[in-house]
Amino acid sequence: MAVKLHRCSNMWVKVSGHPCWKVQNALDEKGIDYEVVKGPLRRGKRDDLERLSGQRHFPVIEFEDGSFYREESKDMAARIRQDQLFEGREGATPPDGGAGASV
What we know:
The protein has helices spanning about 20-30, 45-55, 75-80; strands spanning about 5-10, 35-40, 60, 70. It is of the alpha+beta class. The protein has one domain: 3-Layer(aba) Sandwich (Glutaredoxin). Helix 1 runs parallel beside helix 3.
C-alpha cells in the first residue's frame, strides 16, 4: 500500500530534529513506498493540508483510502519503526470526517 507523505518543502533539511525528516527517514528505513507531497512553509498558506487533515501541521501521512495519520513526529516515526503504520487505523479520519487525528 503506497502512502503520501505531506511535508514541508525544505527537502534539504536532513537533521534528526526536523519533524518532516524524522518521519520520512523512518519510512525509508522500513522500505515503505510513499510519495512526497511538498507543502508551503508558512502555516497560513496550508489550506489544502487543513482540508485534508483538519489541521495545519506537518508531517501528515495520507493513506490510499483518503484517511490520514498525524501525531507528533517522534511518535509517528516510532510507530513506523514498530511496523504499526497500517495497524489500528481507527484513529485515522477521512477528509470529510471533521477535525481528524491532529495534535
